[in-house]
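Margin note from the TA: students keep mixing up input and output lines. Inputs are the sequences; the output is the structure of the whole complex. Example:
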Amino acid sequence: MPGSKSTAEQYADYKIKMQKIADVRNALAVLGWDQETYLPEKGAGFRGQQITTLSSIAHELFTAPELETILQGLKGNTTLDPVEQKNIILSTEDFEKNKKYPAAFVAEMSRVTNESYHAWIKARKANDYSIFAPALARMIELKKQETDILGYEGHPYNALLNEYEKGAHTGMLDTIFNEVKTALSPLLTQIEQQPAINKDFLHLHYNRDAQWKFGLALLENMGYDLKAGRQDVSEHPFTTSFNPLDVRVTTRIDENDFGNMTWSCIHEGGHALYEQGLPTEQYGLPCGEATSLGIHESQSRLWENNVGRSLLFWQYHYPRLQQLFPENLGNVSLDAFYKAINKVQPSLIRTEADELTYHFHIMIRYEIEKGLIDGSIDVKDLKHTWNEYYRQYLHVTVPDDVHGVLQDIHWSHGSFGYFPTYSLGSFYAAQFFAAAQKQVPGLDARIAGGDYQPLLEWLRTNVHPFGRFYTSNELCEKVTGKQLVFGEFLTYAKGKYGGIYGF
Amino acid sequence: MPGSKSTAEQYADYKIKMQKIADVRNALAVLGWDQETYLPEKGAGFRGQQITTLSSIAHELFTAPELETILQGLKGNTTLDPVEQKNIILSTEDFEKNKKYPAAFVAEMSRVTNESYHAWIKARKANDYSIFAPALARMIELKKQETDILGYEGHPYNALLNEYEKGAHTGMLDTIFNEVKTALSPLLTQIEQQPAINKDFLHLHYNRDAQWKFGLALLENMGYDLKAGRQDVSEHPFTTSFNPLDVRVTTRIDENDFGNMTWSCIHEGGHALYEQGLPTEQYGLPCGEATSLGIHESQSRLWENNVGRSLLFWQYHYPRLQQLFPENLGNVSLDAFYKAINKVQPSLIRTEADELTYHFHIMIRYEIEKGLIDGSIDVKDLKHTWNEYYRQYLHVTVPDDVHGVLQDIHWSHGSFGYFPTYSLGSFYAAQFFAAAQKQVPGLDARIAGGDYQPLLEWLRTNVHPFGRFYTSNELCEKVTGKQLVFGEFLTYAKGKYGGIYGF
C-alpha cells in the first residue's frame, strides 16, 4: 500500500518506474539509431516488429495502474523538493493526457498514419498531390478529433501546438509571424535589389574524408564530448540520446556541396550539446528531458547560425579550411566565403532555405495548418493555396508538387503543430545569444579565437540543466529577462544582412 | 478462455507471445552488439541499466501465467504438425526449467556472479589466483545447488552440461576425452619429434585495411549474405543474431599477426552462416533457434579448420593473398604457408592453441569442472591441479596465474559445462565434413576452385534448417548415420598432420 510508505519511499518507487520506462524508450532509440546507420537491408522487417513490440511495452508500462496510484499518492505533496514536485506534476500531466486517448482512436490514428505515409510516398513518386489528398483529408479529420480529445483554449490548433511547445498558442504565433511578414518582407526586398552573391565555389569537389575530419574537429571544438557520443553517417542527419552520457549525432556528406555536411555537423552538435547538458541524475524524469522542441531547436540554430555562420567563427576556422581545400578556396577571401555561406535567395524547398527566407517557409506552413484545422482551408484547395503563398511571400513559382506541397514528410506522419517550433527555435536562439553576449564579457573575442568554452558554460548554466522544470516561455524569461520577442531576431538579421549586402 | 479457442487460435496466441519475448531478447542483443562495437565509453553505466531492465522484462514475459496456460492447453495436442508439437514440448521444457529456480537463488547467483567476475578481474591484474579463489568457491557452491535444482541422472555435472548441450553427459565425454588422451597424445609426441615449422612470416607487418578487405572478401566468398549481416570491429570477435536476416559478425585486426583476423573471420562466418540458415518462419520459436552450442561450434570450426586451414582452400586463395602482401609472402611457397598456419605447438593459452593441442586445453578444463562439482577437486588446490595437468598433457610449465588458471573468463561468469562444447564442435565438424565429402560429388574440387556453394547448400539442407527440432545427437545421427564418434576427428587429424609433418 502506497499509503503506508514514506514520501521518500514513494518517490523512489516513482523514480524506479519512470526509469524503467526510460530504459525501454532508450532501447527503442538505439534500435532506431541502428536502423538509420548500420542495419543491413534485409533486417528491416523484423526490426520494425521489434520496434513495435518495445513501443507497446513502453506504452503499457506508462499506462499501468500502479504508476497512477503512485502519482496520486505524491500529488500535491509539498514535502518533496521543488524539482521532485515538478516531476510529479509533469508526469501526472503526461499520464492524464495519455489516458485521454480512446484505444479505438489510437488504433485508427496508427492505421491512418500508415496509410497517409504510404500515400505521400506514392504521390511523391508520381509528383501528384491528388494521390495524397484523400489520405490527408482523413488525417486532418482525426487531428480535429484529437483537438477535442486533448481540449484547448482559443483556437483548436493550440491543442496540437502544445504537444510540441507547451504554452505556445496562435495568439503568440500570429503576432510573431505577422512581424515576419511586415518586417522581414521589406528586408528581403532590399536584399533582392542588391547584386547577387557568388557561391559557386561551395559546389566544387570537396573530398569526403577531409570533410569528415573537418566536421568532427568542429564538433570537438564546440565542446561535444566524444567520450559520451559519436558521429556516424545516415541519409538524413539527426541527433539521438540514450542518456546524457550517450548522445549521438549523424551526418551526411555531399562531395559537391561543402555546406551540406559542415552546418549539419554544427546544427546537430548544438542539439547534442543540449542533450549532454541535461542532468544525469534526472534520467527518465521530466526534469531530465528537453524543455520543448522550440528550445531544442534554439540550441541547434544558435550554434549553426548565430555562431557557425558568423564572421567571427570563420575568422578562426577559415584559414584551416583553406589549407584543407587549397584548390577550391585558396583564392577565395574570407569576406567572399562569409558572404557565400550567408547568401539570401528565395527558393522552393524549406530544407535548403537560407537563414532569412526560411521563416517564410514556416509561416506558410503555419497558416495552412491553422486553416486546415479550423476548416478555413480545404484539403482540396491546399495545393493552390500553397502555390499562391509561395508566389506571394517568396516570389517563386512552384513548378510541380514535389517542389511544392509534397516536399515535407511531416503531415503524412500526422505532425501538425511541429513546423512553428523551427522558427521559434531561431527566434529563441537570437534572444539567447544576445543575452549571452551581454552577460559574458568578451564573448565575441573568445569566439573569434575559436574558443567556445565561455559560451558553452553559459548555456550549461542558463539553458541546459533545467529540463522540463521550466516551460520554454518561463526559461526564456529567466534567461533573457523577457518573453520571446521577434525583435531580437530582427535586430540580428538587420545587422548581419546589412553588413553582407551593404545597406 | 483458451479452452474455447481452436487449436490454430491457441497456437497463434503461443506464437505471438513467444515472438514478443524474442523481440525483447533481440533488442537486448542489439544493445549488446552496440556495447561491444560503438558505445562511447561514458555510456556504459546507463547501458548496463537498460540491459538489466530489458532482461527483467523478457524474464517476466517468459514466466507469465498466460503463457503457461497456453502451453498447458496445447501440450500433447496431436493435431498440431510435428514442428508445432516440438515447439510446444521445448517451450514447455524451457518454461518448467525456468520455474524451478527460486527467486532467492536467482538473486544470489546474480550477486555472486558479479562478485566473482570482479574478483577475477582483480586477480588477473594482480596475477594472483588466491584473490579469485574465495569468490570461485562461493560460485561452485551455487553451481552445486543448481544441479539439485535442475535435477540430473548420473553425475551432477550432467545438469550443467545440459544447459549448453542437451543430451550430453559425462559418460559420453569421458569416452571422448579418454580417446583424446590415448590417441592424440602419441600423435602429439610424434609431431614434437619432427623439425619445427617456421611461421615467423605470419608475424610481419600486415596492413590493417588490406586485412579487412581480404577478410570481408572471404566472408562473401563463403556465402555470408552481407545484405542480411555486416562486419564490425570489436575487442573480442563474436557473432550475434537479431533474426536470420540480420546476423552480424565482428572481428579484430592485429597488424603483426596475420592469422588473428583471417581465421576469426572464417570462424565467425561459420557461426553466421548457421544463423542465416535458420528458418525465418520459426522466428522466436525453439525450432528457429540453434540446436546447441556444440552444433553452433561445429559450424564455425568446420569452416575455420576443415575448410579454412586446408590445402585445398589455400590453393585458391594463396595467390590472391600473395598479391596483397607481396613483401611478406612473395617468397613463401604455398606449402610453407600451409604448414605455418597448421603448426602444432603445445602452449599455455587455450585461445592461441592450434587445432590439435586445443583439445587438451578443453579436456583439462572438463576434468577440473567435473571434479569441482563432485567435490573431488577443491578450489584451494585448483591452481596446483591446473599446472600439473598442463605439465602432464601439454608438457608446458605454467609460469604464473594469468598464463594459467586465470586465463578464461568462463568460471567467473558461472559458465560450467560450456567448455566441452568447444571440443564437441570440432568433433561434430569432422564428422559432418566427412559426410559432406561422401555425399557431395566433387566437393573437394569445388573447394579447391574457391566455390563453397555446394558445401553451403549441403549444410543448408542437412544441418541449418532444423533449429532445436533435433538434439545434437539426433542431428548427428540423421546427417552422418551414426552418433558422434571421436574416430572421425582422429582420422582427419592423422591424415592432415601426417601430411604436414611427413609421417
